[in-house]
Fold:
Amino acid sequence: MSGCSQGAQSKMAFDADSTFDASSIVTDYMYEAMKKEGRLVGGQGITGSRSRIVERIRVGAYPVGGKIGLQPGPGLLDFLLPRILGATEGDDDEFSLAESLQSMSVMIDKVGSIFRYDSAYVNRAVFRATAGPGDNDPEIVELVLDLVAKTETGGLTWPGTVPALTITSNFMPYILSDAVLTIGGTPYQFKQFALVIENFLQTRWVNSLTASQICPRDRRVSLIVENPFTSTEYAAFYGSSDQSTGLAATLVFTNGTMSTTFTMPCLTWPDETPTVRGKQEIPYWIVFDALKSDTDAELTVTNDSVE
Structure:
């Protein structure tokens, strides 16, 4: 009798391509939903019976992808940011947006078998966290990657040259109290946030069972913040003349000598009136869109991962 496949025994590795070796990155993760969604096509023909005939069934084209939940530190972000934003690391630890995206491969030991996902692109990346104690460590900054890949390969073996789990301090995750949010030169307190980077991937199928191309067709960068609703926030944001022209902002996480800075030169936002939901603190949700301003891209990230 075989034992159970327990998720605690799973492992995950990232690499720039499908050749996993000593340069690959092994990291802990919270969950994954990477899968091939296989399809069978045919069998719809009229035959004089309501029964469907197996001899008319074929294996059809299929999508591959899913979500991965991570708790990243600056060391892991050095690898992931070029896949999220597009450009390779530039001078002074800076990561910029690009019109094209870089792919990666992901290997997951799902205990019952080992799978590899190749030519995987980031469709959406969400950085998020919530202040205060609660279930599932909400204070830790979580990164949810929504990936679209070309192929899944199963039945593999874990490469012997892949390094062990990285436990250096630059892989230590950020928490919300590491953060400082500054908008228009003024720092603001906030209870939770989500920074969303969407690449709007479009998958092309031609005469093959797997995708032939995965292309970004648009981009949106959003910052969603829950602030306390006080007269300060009301005066700064509600009905502001800066709503459509934008304010510069930074979201900075600092842990010791390491830091990650999200720089947005032009945040715009619509009014959304706070509401009273009972005998509790009234929250003030603001949905900001980060837009390009002149030659300044809507988002750049400076990631100092030196321990």
In short: The CA atoms of residues 252 and 261 lie 4 Å apart. The first helix runs from residue 74 to 85. The first strand starts at residue 11 and ends at 15.
